[in-house]
Design goal:
Number of helices of chain B: 4
Helix content of chain B: 10-25%
Order of helices and strands of chain A: HHHEHEHEHEEH
Strand order of the largest sheet of chain B: 1-2-7-6-3
Distance between the termini of chain A: 41 Å
Oligomer: heterodimer
Largest sheet of chain B: 5 strands, mixed
Structural class of chain B: alpha/beta
Number of helices of chain A: 7
Radius of gyration of chain B: 22 Å
Helix content of chain A: 25-40%
């Protein structure tokens, strides 16, 4: 529908919308995160839900205790190699549509612990991340900004056509391989289906 | 009791044991006792049970990796050069074999004394990495000996439950050793940027 006509109609008290708008409006305002924290970023995540920052204003007040009821996993903290399979498993157990926020330097790259033998250098090696936020740890405002970025992303999703989101593609996966504990590290070291491999980018 | 007195006490109590006082060049100057691994169990028992010592608490146990070292010394030697005796400087290289070390910090709660720093060394860093476990004497060393086993590869004989504690069971490396190299595909971003290993 023409945007001008829509505005004109609303001046006369007639509200028009599309199914897509209504569906995305409902989805973006009821994103329920998983109760899941890894390190100090989790403390900031908890602070964002409390009265001072009040994430409930954005429809995310209910942190679900089960991945089966969650729409969003906030990877808040250092992902160790020993923890990575569990993070991927939790993500796999969430129903579609599901989203990932990688919160803080550690979750996006390993952060100050990057050169550690035990640290995964970014959770985007195994699961698709929707929003990355830098910071060590990011302030609650930054997490709220990430949340609003995710809302804008959900709002812009088209429900039909080739660019429709993953959960509306019957043949796209909603589960991703869980890495195994190898002799020297995780096997495989990354999932090239989701990871933006810098070596392959260099090769072109 | 000074460390020298303690050393002679131990040597009087346990015949034929090797005890050595290690100096410490740091500002703290905290010296330690290096004990031979053959008698370490009996020495530890003596330190705990002797009524004048009563080291009843092991507050900390950790590992140290000493890689193989090469020391170069300059020595002045007299040599006959062209029929004339002259003083010539020679460089002599000596290789010091590495070892793995276990360090225990002991306190006496009874006597309000401590810490006493006790050390043991393995024969080398590759095949002979066994040390006697002191967990039967100080139970508090149990998890930390497991950690030293996990990260340094020191095998503690007599430990009640010697398994890896931080890394998973199938892991084969010892990441706290100086020569540990993480798997090459660990840091793809560094490889792409050409800063791998930097």
């Amino acid at each position: 529908m023409d945007q001008d006509l829509k505005i004109e109609l609303s001046k006369h008290g007639i509200f028009t919308t599309t199914l897509e708008e209504l569906y995305n409006w409902g989805r973006k305002n009821s994103v329920w995160p998983l109760t899941f924290g890894l390190a100090c970023c989790a403390i900031e995540m908890i602070a964002s839900t409390m009265a001072r920052y009040d994430l409930a204003r954005f429809g995310a007040e209910v942190f679900r205790p089960s991945p089966r009821q969650a729409d969003l996993i906030i990877v808040s903290g250092t992902v160790t190699k020993k923890m990575a399979p569990q993070v991927v498993r939790l993500y796999n157990q969430m129903p579609e549509p599901k989203y990932v926020i990688a919160m803080g330097a550690c979750a996006i790259s390993g952060g100050p612990f990057r050169s550690g033998y035990n640290v995964l250098k970014g959770i985007d090696r195994y699961i698709p991340v929707d929003v990355h936020i830098p910071g060590c740890p990011p302030r609650p405002e930054a997490l709220i900004h990430a949340f609003m970025t995710l809302q804008a992303k959900i709002d812009a999703q088209e429900l039909t056509g080739e660019s429709r989101p993953r959960h509306l593609h019957a043949d796209l996966p909603s589960e991703f391989p869980i890495p195994d504990f190898g002799e020297h590290g995780l096997e495989p070291p990354q999932n090239d289906e989701v990871f933006h491999n810098p070596l392959k980018v260099l090769e072109g | 009791m000074t460390l020298e007195e303690l050393k002679s006490e131990i040597q009087a109590a346990i015949a034929g044991c090797s005890v050595e006082i290690l100096p410490n060049g740091s500002p703290s100057g905290q010296r330690s006792l290096l004990v031979g691994r053959e008698h370490a169990g009996r020495i530890a028992e003596f330190l705990r049970d002797d009524p004048r010592l009563q080291f009843d608490f092991c507050s900390n146990m950790t590992g140290v990796d000493w890689p193989d070292q090469e020391k170069t010394e300059k020595i002045k030697a007299k040599k006959i050069v062209d029929g004339v005796e002259r003083e010539v400087e020679e460089t002599r290289k000596t290789s010091i074999p590495g070892c793995l070390e276990a360090v225990y910090h002991l306190y006496s709660i009874q006597r309000k004394d401590g810490p006493l720093v006790l050390r043991m060394r393995t024969a080398d860093r590759r095949d002979n990495v066994k040390l006697p476990s002191l967990t039967p004497i100080w139970r508090s060393a149990e998890f930390q000996e497991r950690e030293a086993f996990d990260l340094y590869g020191i095998v503690f004989e007599g430990h009640p439950d010697l398994r890896r504690i931080l890394m998973w069971d199938g892991f084969v490396d010892h990441p706290m050793r100086k020569d540990y190299v993480p798997p090459p595909d660990d840091d793809l971003e560094a490889i792409a940027a050409g800063t791998a290993g930097a």
